Amino acid sequence: MLLPAIAEKLLHSFIPEQLFSRDVYTSNIKRKQIVKSDIYSSIIKKSITYAQSNEYKSYDVSDLMKTKPYALFSGLSNNFLRRATLYLYSTLMKRKPEWIRKFVKEKGYIYPQGQAMVIRGLVTLAKKNNPLGDIEEAKKLADWLIKNSSPHSKHYGWGQPFLWYSRKPFPPNTPRATVSSQVAWAMLYLFEYTQDEIYLDVAKDVCYLFKEEFNYTPDNNGNFCVSYTTIDNYHIHNASMLAASVIFRVYAYTKIAELGEFGMRIADFTASHQNEDGSFYYWAPPDKLSYVIDNYHTGFVLESYKTIKEDCGDSRYDNVYSDGISFYYDNLFLDVIPKISWEKTYPIDIQSCSQSIMTFCLDGNQKYIKKAHEIADYTIQSFFLKDKNHFAYKIYENNFIDKSYYFRWADAWMIRALSYLMVESE
């Protein structure tokens, strides 16, 4: 097992030497929880401090495909040359991203999704009176989000702050289901803590963004998958379910019947396409372009069904969730390592780590809580860069680590994940 060695290294790394004792970690459960909480607290502090020193800005994964060399190689008419040059380019992307980044014009963005994750982490801690739960910081980030809603919608909505591609070009700030739902959840967290209805109103308006501006076509049962953005008609389970989870939570507070019905149609659609073994494909009909079952997108779906179970008022999704999390636990991990998919372990992605911690933590079952702590130990030991005070991006099969700083992909998610574990440990 990897855990004893990882645990010992973590203790030496983050706890003063004079406090280190194997007995502290192994012989007393309460002390063990305190030690873990201290580690998580230290990481959260360092990660937030580093993010604030950069004004929450960072590069993005997609930057590396926005260079003139990439455009040149992609446009080569000779098939052999195009494939050869793109192979070399992709190798550099993995091995020396800092070399390619010299050709990137943009020097970093503020990401709504990243801000939302930090808010949820801070509020989670504040609910337990943890000193790291800085509500004023959370409100400041929320104010920024409200003021920087997408200009492409009459409703509140958010997308990525750059031009990005997914089978077609998407203009900057195009409202996106994954981003808008995460921001709406941040607003709901603040509403639950402060009882200030401005946050509930924003979240409710996001629900009407999904209902009125996103695209969906009912199937034969009247159910549907909400599109990925307002300008496509992609069918993707995790994005649609994240939207459904927000809609159900808003319904739980407002009892607006049309929202409850809308959310149920979305959740019923994905439930009807769950595989017999409990898994979910990334793509939904009629867009089954591939039969991928990956780690963190499965986690999004499961997290969504977990909160929907709490908000819908009945047991209609209980089996969907229980079958799903059983498949997730049994097939998408190699011991403490979150696999990239049910068929492959590598590359190990930091977002698989963070989302699996949250998915298991939110379940509440002690078996899953234990797994969440084990994954956190592994992630801190393997991904956290002590000399830089941030998390790395990916680990490849040959143990090469891409140490790039992608706040909205890595640290923001880990701040939220570790906050859940800190609360659970208290």
Could you give a quick summary of the protein structure above?
The protein is 58% helix and 5% strand. With 426 residues, it is mainly alpha-helical. The chain has 2 domains: 3-59 and 110-425, Glycosyltransferase (Alpha/alpha barrel), CATH 1.50.10.20; 67-103, no CATH class.
What does it look like?
This protein is mostly helical. It folds into two domains: 3-59 and 110-425, Glycosyltransferase (Alpha/alpha barrel); 67-103, no CATH class. 58% of the residues lie in helices and 5% in strands. The chain contains 17 helices and eleven strands. It has helices spanning 3-14, 22-26, 29-53, 68-74, 79-95, 97-101, 112-127, 135-147, 177-194, 197-212, 237-254, 257-272, 295-311, 318-331, 350-363, 366-383, 411-425, and strands at residues 57-58, 109-110, 164-165, 169-170, 333-334, 337-338, 348-349, 384-385, 390-391, 394-395, 401-402. The strands form five sheets. Strands 7-10-11 form a three-stranded antiparallel beta sheet. It has a two-stranded antiparallel sheet with strand order 1-2. The protein has a two-stranded antiparallel sheet with strand order 3-4. A hairpin with a 2-residue loop joins β5 and β6 (337-338). α7 runs parallel beside α9 (177-194), α9 packs antiparallel against α10 (197-212) and α13 (295-311) runs parallel beside α15. It starts with a helix and ends with a helix. The model is unreliable at 15-27 (pLDDT under 50).
